[in-house]
Structure formats: C-alpha cells, structure tokens
Amino acid sequence: MAQQDTDQQHPGVLPVDDEGFVVDSQDCEEREADWRGRGTSRPITVVGNPVLHKECEDVTDFGEEFQQLVADMFASQRTAEGVGLAANQIGVSKKVFVYDCPDDEGVRHVGVVCNPRLVELPADRRRLDDSNEGCLSVPTAYAPLARPDYAEVTGQDERGNPVKVRGTGYFARCLQHETDHLYGYLYIDRLSKRERKDALRQMAENEPRYPVVAND
Hints:
The chain is built from 4 helices and 11 strands, in the order αβαβββββββββααβ. The chain is α+β, with helices and mostly antiparallel strands. The strands form 4 sheets. A 5-stranded antiparallel sheet has the order 2-3-4-9-10, with helices on both faces. A two-stranded parallel sheet has the order 1-11. It has a two-stranded antiparallel sheet with strand order 5-8. The chain is globular. The chain starts with 27 loop residues before the first helix and ends with a strand. The active site is at 178. Belongs to the polypeptide deformylase family.
C-alpha cells in the first residue's frame, strides 16, 4: 500500500492505495470514536432552512475551530444514526462532510472530505441503482432515486491534504448525496414533483427520532 507522495504534498491523515485512493476502511471504530468523543452533538437542520438550499463556502482554514466542527459532525451523525452528514445539516455553511458508511459488500468506511468534487464518469462506467434514499434533513421520508452505483470524489482531508475517495453501492450513494448537500441540493430536489410531495408528506406525518431545528 503506497503512502501519498511527500515530495509534492504533506502526508495525508490516512494511507492511500496504489491508485491514489484513500484507505478509509481501517481502524474505523477507533477513528470514529475518537472524533465523536471530542465532539458535541448538534440538532439537525431540516428542509426549508435556507442554509440547506445554497452552495456552501470552501474550507480554507483547517485550524482548531474547524477540527471541533468535524468532531461535532461525527457526534451529531451518531446521535441521528446517519451514515453521512454535511456541515450545513448542522447549520454551518462550509464544504465538508463526514461519513461512517458501509458499502454493498459490508465494508465499513469512515472519513472526512472537504471541498468535494464528484468525478464525471464515462457513460460505459455508469450503472444506475434505483434503491430507496433518505436524508437526515428530511426525517422519516424515503423515495427511490436512481444514482450511479460507483462514485469517485476528489477534495481535501481534515488537515487540507488532497484526497480521492471512491465507493460502490450504498457508499457510492452516500458520497453523491453528501456532495450534493454542499452545493445546495437535497435528494428530494432530484425527484419528480409528485415524488417530492410524497416525501414531504411522509416527513409531516412522522416524528424524527433525533433533535431537529424547527423552521420558523
């Protein structure tokens, strides 16, 4: 397993494989617990809150305040029993998401991505998966949504080092879903008007299982 090239960049927080993708499936329990233990859980913002509906600001300062934000995000994600969380879902307009998500082979992935960009896949590599999708910011609602079953994201880790992350199946969906958040899109924005209306109905008819910020 190759480390990042220290002649051209600082060593990353996590190792990378021979293709340059971050290895985020090692020591998951310890890494997630460490982040969560330093964080404070915050309530989740829900659809309708303006912070969810605009592009977030790039992360440029990776200092102590930002490290605390990431820790709070891991704590909030665990409280809400989510597999991914974007900063604007706890009211902070910064381009960073965290994840603790299995892929379709049951392999757990834990990591942080700042300033993410989805890599455009050629048509011959795109296979759509129309599984159900949900969102902590649209609590209790689910709808089928077709997304590619493989995704690659480029960005930076929590210390500002360049990273590439890839995933299949459920984890690929997570990477796409969380990147969408940071550019002001919820999964329900990709649904038909009828499906979106049904998702909002589901949300209105049920109580979230975690603390949320009520919209005024």
